Each structure stands twice: as C-alpha cells, then as structure tokens.
Amino acid sequence: MRYRLLGRTGLRVSELFLGAMTYRQVTPEARRVFDLYEESGGNVVDTASMYGDSENVVGELLEGRRDRFVLATKYTPTRDRTDLNAAGNHRKNLVLSLEQSLRRLRTDYLDLLWVHVWDRHTPVEETMRALDDVVRSGKVLYVGISDAPAWVVSRANTLAEWRGWTPFAGLQVPYSLLQRDVERELLPMARALGVSVAAWGVLARGVLSGRYAEPGAAASRVSPESIGERDRAAVRAVLDVAAELGVTASQVALAWALRRGVHPILGTSGAEQLKDNLGASAVARALPEEAIHRLESAVTFELGFPGDFVGEVDRSPDIYGDALPYLDGR
C-alpha cells in the first residue's frame, strides 16, 4: 500500500479507501475484512450517517485501534423524515448529525467529515462557516464534500481561503471506465485547487469485474440482460488487459482509477474480495500506458465543451502565435 497527502494538508491517507456502506452487523467476516485492510496498510474507513447501522458496526470494529485509522463519515440526509430541519447542510443538521455519528462511532472526533450531497437550499457560506466551527471545536479535523457541482466546490473553497475558514480537502465522486463525466469539470477543478478525490462505483456495480461476462451469469446487483454493448466493450478490454498481465479484471479497473490519481473506495463483501482488490495497488504501478489507452478507447467518451474547444485552442498558433511550439507550459 502506498500513501498520498489529503488535499493540501499533511494527513497521510492510503491510496485505497475501505467503504463500509454495506455493513449492517458485526460478523466474523466483517472483522476479517477490517483486519486484512489494516494489515495491508490501509488506514481510511469511509461510512455515512444514512448507511443504516454501518456507523455502529464501524465503531465496534475499530474499538481499541481507532486512532490508527482516518475515520470518515458523512452528513446531509435526514435523521427524521417528518422534520424538514433534520436534513440538509445547514448548521442545525450539521451539529445534530455530527453528535449522532460520534455516538454511533464510539469516538470523540472525526478525522474527515464529508458533506454528503450539495443542498441547494442552504447558502454555501453557512455550510463552510459551520464546518469551520466544528473543526475549531476539535470534533472534526478535516472536511470534504461529495456529489456536488464543480462551481459549488470552487466557490466554497474560495470563500474559505478569503475568510480563513477550513477548506474542503477532499471530493467524493462516482468514477469508472464506464462513467467518466467528472473528467469534464470536477477532476480538473480538484487538481487546480489541490483537493484529493475519492471515487465510488469504480467497478460499476460489479460490471467491470467481469462477473457478468460469462454466458448464463447470475444476476446480482445488475441483471446481465441489462448490460448494453457499450459496457460489454469496456469489459472485453478490461478482461484482455487482465489476461495479458495475469491479474483479475477488478484489479485492472481499480488500477486504471489509481493511475488517474483518485482514491478508489473498496466496497467489498468479504475478505477474499478485499484481498483481490488490494492487489490493484501493485497492478497500477505495472499497468503500461498502451494498456491504459486501450481501456479508455474501448468506449466512447467526449469531453465536450469547453474542454474539447479549449484543448484545441490551446494548440492553435492563431490564438497564441507562431512561437507557441517553443513554450514549455503547464
């Protein structure tokens, strides 16, 4: 396992995060998963207030070793469907959700608190100031945001910079070979602002693991009949690269995401699956550029405006002059 710095902070986080969304009770298998992840060098556990009993399970599984982990959870979704103020990114819900999560997780602080989703009904100024307050209180060390437009994150971090508040150090997005939308605005923004990116859905609900590629494959999270030709083309490319390297399809799909600079969140159901996924770290360092090109060329993806247009203009002597080829730019 290798490590990166979280955003523009000094916090060391493992390149692979462990997602705890599916854990509903403490079982011997769940303990094996957490033990294996720790033994591999993994140190980030990601959960959320809305993931059922996940926070309770994580709190129990980390008991006695909590400080060795970067513990992350999320707030925004409702705590009480009958109360409008029990949801959203405003100060009241933040404070009450945070206290609830701390109790469930059996800890007096969070390493990382994510805003779970953009709340268009709450001014971003209120959210950022409230987040800064819980950081100053010592109950939260770092903050991040999930599932939000690039302009919202940019505005939030600019406000934080101007006013001396705590900025977002992390961004959480869906990202895979089959869903690359975030390359248009969100990933360039994150690179420009120095924000770390965590990715969920990297295996596209198991499609990129190749589990549905065989004739007669049983339905699980996805019905094999629902997988279209575009997705099947990507799966074939992943399987071809995996066969050439002597690794699994899941490792190739995760390794591709690692090479794109993001932190895949591993949503594993058991220790054997986690062991396979952890192997993506080594595969990422051995993945040839030619293989990456083949993977990305297997399915159609257009950056669209303004990305394509600006990229074309950037190479144009009509805009920047005839000496453009001599410029060593960014």
UniProtKB/TrEMBL annotation:
EC number of this enzyme: 1.1.1.-
Cited InterPro entries: AKR_Detox_Biosynth, NAD(P)_OxRdtase_dom_sf, NADP_OxRdtase_dom
GO MF terms held by the record: oxidoreductase activity
A matching Pfam family: Aldo_ket_red
Swiss-Prot/TrEMBL keywords: Oxidoreductase
Chain ranges of the NADP-dependent oxidoreductase domain: 16-298
Cited PANTHER family: NAD(P)-LINKED OXIDOREDUCTASE SUPERFAMILY PROTEIN, NADH-SPECIFIC METHYLGLYOXAL REDUCTASE-RELATED
Protein name: L-glyceraldehyde 3-phosphate reductase
Source organism of the structure: Nonomuraea coxensis DSM 45129
Gene that specifies this protein: gpr1
